[in-house]
Write a structure and sequence with these properties.
single chain, 508 residues, alpha+beta, four-stranded antiparallel sheet, 17 helices, 48% helix, 20% strand
């Protein structure tokens, strides 16, 4: 007996732990939302390119577009132009779109549109980059100023990250004469980046210029320059104005390198203006969209990977254990008497079609009529199988009559009574009639009311949309329910109704 108890405890612990671990992995690692109402951001980015085309000259315009190999995934990308050929090429980690036309004249307008969202899941490719670079040649006063700046930088830094941060702070120090000399009176961000690159190159620290777009609903904005360096494990991003380390969450890399955003041959005065707007989409739907555009396939191995019609069926099936749990608690802890365990659950499923109020009325009417017929057939001394056959046929006829009258009266809800499990109703009538004969009418009425009450409670719980979503999305929660059911199987204590049964002993 002791080994049996240990076996049961180990089994319960294993099931509950496994259910909790799988659910926690889905929530915290895969990032699956816990509620159906949870939404994720969807960004629409429009880049408008305008330029003047030279008459009678071929036009070739090139513009960097996001590489999308980072924390974002594209849901839709389009290149809008009139009579232009479009091609996209990759080079040095960047993507560049080329619009070309044989002839164009006057003002030209081209559009690039991108719909993207945060990459939902899936492992990112391991980052790689240079960890050493050659020094930029520098002579004269600039060399002396650079060495004077580098001496305290080396002293106050411990690794690549602190070295770069200290370098940026020194270059931005307006009171430092050496920094002023390197900047040459030009305090623009681009010139500061050039001075920072010079100092870092002398220390053989590689650096790249990164041009970013801020994901914010602004009318217009321009790419912002950031710097990055590879420390052998990951990319470190820095703001060249403040030395702030780490790319903000609302920033996405548009392109890297020293080249301008747009270049044109056969035209002049190219200008690019950005406009962004934000919308929201259901998180699970968005996850399915991003799953189709990435290598992440965690949804493919969940119930969301099933065909849509099959998903609807499983949304009902996964709630059956919830209904069974309700009946188990009502019977083992509450002491409620019902017609078995699964009959109330099946009746609760039927209530999904008829709705609760109408379903209770139909159940009561059909059961009462069936019991009356069963009582009449008892006087004919028929065997059980013919008797059940007659009751079943009567139930079918009664359902048809109710459906017909409901339709004539304009009560379309009555048509759903045909979905009631006729066999369940027939067996319910048969079992209630047997209970009536064996234990009396009052006990049969008590069992019928208990069955209807349990079915109603199970239906209400099985119809909670948040619970349906949670169990369907995280089916491992059913393992926890099984563990609880196993624990309930060894319960030998008093039931709630027994407190009323033994109330006389308490008075004594």
């Amino acid at each position: 007996m002791r080994s049996l108890n240990l076996h049961l405890k180990v089994l319960i612990t294993l099931l509950v732990s496994l259910g909790i671990l799988i659910t926690a992995y889905q929530i915290f690692i895969l990032g699956i939302p816990m509620t159906e109402d949870e939404t994720d951001d969807l960004w629409n980015i429009d880049a408008r390119v305008e330029f003047q085309a030279n008459p009678r000259e071929p036009v070739k315009l090139q513009m960097f577009v996001p590489p999308l190999n980072q924390d974002y995934v594209s849901l839709n990308e389009s290149f809008i132009s009139n009579n232009y050929g479009v091609s996209v090429n990759r080079a040095e980690g960047n993507r560049k779109v080329t619009w070309s036309a044989r002839r164009a004249s006057g003002k030209q307008t081209l559009y690039y549109r991108l719909v993207l969202t945060k990459r939902y899941s899936g492992e990112q490719a391991k980052a790689s980059g240079p960890i050493f670079r050659d020094s930029i040649p520098v002579e004269g006063a600039e060399k002396i100023a650079a060495e004077a700046l580098l001496a305290p930088i080396r002293q106050h830094s411990a690794d690549v990250e602190t070295f770069i941060s200290e370098t940026i702070k020194r270059v931005n120090n307006e009171n430092d004469d050496n920094a002023k000399l390197l900047l040459g009176g030009d305090a623009s961000t681009a010139n500061k980046a050039q001075a920072i690159e010079l100092l870092l190159s002398i220390a053989h620290v590689p650096m790249q210029r990164v041009h970013t777009i801020r994901l914010a609903a602004e009318i217009q904005q321009s790419p912002e320059l950031w710097l990055r360096s590879f420390n052998g494990d990951r990319w470190l991003y820095f703001n060249p104005e403040t030395g702030e380390q780490g790319l903000p969450n609302d920033r996405m890399v548009w392109w890297t390198g020293d080249e301008p955003l747009v270049s044109v041959e056969g035209g002049r005065q190219p200008q690019v203006s950005f406009s962004l707007n934000n919308s929201e989409m259901n998180a699970i739907r968005l996850a399915k969209l991003t799953d189709e555009n990435t290598d992440a396939d965690f949804l493919e191995y969940s119930l969301y990977g099933l065909p849509l019609q099959t998903q609807q069926t499983f949304m009902i099936m996964v709630m059956i254990p919830i209904g069974v749990l309700v009946i188990l608690i009502l019977r083992n802890l509450g002491g409620l008497q019902t017609l078995g365990t699964f009959t109330p659950v099946l009746i609760a499923l039927a209530f999904r079609e008829t709705q609760l109020g109408f379903g209770i009325i139909l159940f009561t009417v059909i059961t009462a009529a069936g019991l009356s017929l069963r009582s009449y057939l008892e006087h004919l001394k028929l065997q059980m199988l013919p008797r059940l056959s007659v009751v079943l046929t009567f139930v079918v006829v009664l359902i048809a009559v109710i459906s017909l009258f409901s339709h004539k009266l304009g009560l379309e809800r009555g048509l759903s009574v045909a979905l009631f499990p006729m066999v369940i109703l027939t067996m319910t009538i048969e079992r209630l009639s047997i209970t009536w004969e064996e234990r009396g009418g009052s006990h049969a009425f008590k069992v019928a009311v208990g069955t209807l009450f349990a079915a109603t409670l199970a239906h209400l719980l099985m119809s909670v949309p948040e619970l349906v979503y949670f169990v369907f999305t995280f089916p491992a929660i059913l393992l926890i329910l099984v563990g609880f059911m196993l624990a309930m199987g060894r319960y030998r204590g008093y039931r709630l109704t027994e407190l009323f049964r033994f109330k006389a002993f308490l008075k004594d």
